[in-house]
Amino acid sequence: MFLLVGLLFAVLAFLLTRGGGPDVEPRRVPPSSPLRRQSGGLLVYAAPDRQGTERLWRWNLVTGTVARGPLIREPIAMVNVGSPEYGRLGLTSDLGNGVREAAILDSLDPGAVITPLGRADFITWARHGASAIFVNRGPLLDGCRREVSVFVEQVRVEGREVVMHDTICGDVLSVGRTGIGYFLTEQGLGRVDVVGKGYPDAGVLLEGYGVIAISPGGDMLVTPGTEFLPAIVPTKPATGDYDPPPTWVAGQAFAYRQFRGPPVPYVVQGVALRVDEVLGYAPGEITALVIGRLGGDRPGLWELPLGVARVESTTPRYVADVGGVTTAAYANDGSAFVLSEGHLWLLRNHRLSPLDVPEGAPVPNGPLVWIGREPTADG
Q: pLDDT by residue (tens digit) across 141-154?
């Protein structure tokens, strides 16, 4: 009897720590709901078009109307350019054969002009979408050596900034930017490090770690190399041409900010949280919304406090289980729109409420972006 009571209290304590998922019998939020209108602005998303392509749609959250946008390649990422209030969007698309392209839309009208910024093996948007970082990994030359090029294109300023162009024994797995400089996850034979570039005395910042993501405010989510590196570092066979793709950086998450001490783990009742992907950052960059898991749990939506010196705890908050394609976008009021398992949700005050798109409008099937207003010609 005492054992049963103890188990019940343990389960209750765990659920309280994780927070709450959707209501047991949630009431669907209709398109005209005041709950949805509180966020204001527009929700922009992609959905398949009858022509077999993708089309952007813009949903006015105040009026509840949905309008067609331009035809685009299927996006794997969409970002605000500079600020959500400008309404300009950047896209990342997969062109096939391991090549990705970043581009800018001049408007959200059906006839919008799409201007490519560049192509690379992988692309990271930085500084609130004001710049895109491109990483090109040349083929393996012999053994472990390859040529790596990292360059930056600014959205509003012409000219390319070269961050790195070198032949290394290893690979570059991820990249990001803070107000100080650029930071790369560099993999070598038997090692992986976070390495700084583009500022005085740049060099190895964190030995044995990789960067999962860097917030616009400069807060890093990092993970030990043992979490994501294979037991054997891939190299080119003596008689073969196989060149493996870069390893995805994911694993036990640590909060880190330069000059503020060692990385601090995110832990829930003694269990480390593994982060698979960062979906977005709340206004002020005080919270990251991520896909993570505890031990053998299925993937879940978690809110992570950011800023090691600005928060009292590094305990993340569980929101709900997720599955399938999962994306999210924050509005300026701190609420977030979440797509998971083919359903749209509104996240507010740590809880999800189901959200219906207007009648006749397609359901999102990929990245989401919230904007404050329609872009203008001079915006």
A: 877 888 999 999 99
